[in-house]
Specification:
about 325 residues, alpha/beta, 13 strands, about 30% strand
Length: about 325
């Protein structure tokens, strides 16, 4: 059965709509303190640039065999060509990537020495895209849905300004008319704007910020009750919440049931990008119509696997298959 499921992934085309970025890793050594200020001097030995944000979701889908189409806007700036080169290097299409002089290509610089991160520097523009850019992006998405067999849409929201209430509503409405699954990895700003999507997947921090209420999140029953209430209010089919070392919990609105899966014991190297993996795996398994409890268990496993690697990396298909079989999840 597992071979058939993973083989089916090759048939699926997924639109990934959201904020893209470049993850930069500048690695070196620290041997002295600056005479100008009491801070360490990092002597750079290597620079590594990787696709991040919604682009990492696309990489996860691609690694699992699916065809992702990345839909986003980057800056017409010094980093535009670097981002486009990274897409080409990773065999991802730039067909729905637009460049705008009003935007900044988001860069996250991580300064690393002796396997430890000393500092992160972000270069970005969080202002909302303009109406013209919004219409341009929507027109492209509409054309893709009309001309391609799109199996699902993933919103990967990093609060960088690409998504807003109006654009989200138009895309969700378009998806419903075409009976397309919609899944969401949200952030705070648009948390309450994803009415009626198939699956909504916040992490615990995002859930706390989005609820903005006094809920005892350490109490699983109270947490599940709050999740149920929100899922019903927002008309989600499923609400899956990742709880870091406490695993995942998911609510199935149609069945009116909650499920919880504990985290797997891991040697954690870096939690960056785990949410990207969870949403990618969950979306593909939703298309396969697996039970939501099983989907949550496998997504939980996948998120833990990528945390064992330093930096943002996509899930490896064969490793996930082996771990699913080992843990008897299928």
């Amino acid at each position: 059965m597992i071979e058939k499921i993973f083989e089916n992934f090759k048939k699926y085309t997924i639109l990934v709509i959201g904020d893209v970025m470049i993850d930069a890793y500048w690695t070196g050594s620290v041997n002295r303190i600056s005479p100008e200020s009491p801070v360490p001097v990092l002597e750079i030995k290597s620079r590594d640039y990787r696709l991040g944000g919604a682009a990492n979701v696309a990489l996860n889908l691609q690694s699992l065999g699916a065809t992702p189409i990345l839909c986003s806007i980057i800056g017409k700036d010094n980093h535009e060509n670097l981002f486009l080169d990274l897409l080409k290097k990773n065999n991802l299409t730039n067909d729905a990537i637009f460049s705008s002089p009003q935007r900044t290509t988001t860069m996250k610089y991580r300064m690393i020495a002796n396997h430890s991160q000393l500092l992160r520097v972000d270069e970005e523009n969080r202002q909302e895209i303009g109406l013209e850019e919004q219409q341009q992006l929507f027109n492209k998405i509409e054309k893709l849905i009309t001309t391609r067999s799109v199996d699902a849409i993933i919103f990967e929201d990093y609060d960088k300004g690409l998504l807003n209430k109006e654009l989200i509503a138009k895309i969700v409405d378009l998806a419903k008319k075409n009976k397309i699954i919609v899944t969401v990895d949200p952030k705070r700003k648009n948390f309450h704007h994803y009415q009626g999507v198939t699956l909504f997947k916040p992490n615990l921090k995002e859930l706390k910020e989005g609820f903005n209420q006094e809920t005892d999140f350490s109490n699983l029953q109270a947490l599940q009750e709050a999740i149920k209430e929100f899922a019903e209010k927002m008309n989600f089919d499923f609400l899956l919440t990742t709880l870091s070392e406490k695993g995942v919990t998911v609510y199935d609105r149609k069945e009116d049931k909650s499920y919880h899966h504990n985290a797997y014991l891991r040697q954690i190297a870096d939690v960056s990008g785990a949410g990207d993996t969870v949403i990618a795996v969950s979306t593909l398994l939703l298309i396969e119509q697996l039970p939501i409890s099983q989907i949550a268990a496998i997504a939980n496993l996948a998120g833990g696997i990528v945390c064992e690697y330093a930096g943002v990396v996509p899930i490896k298909k064969e490793e996930l298959k082996q771990q699913i079989l080992k843990n008897k999840l299928i």
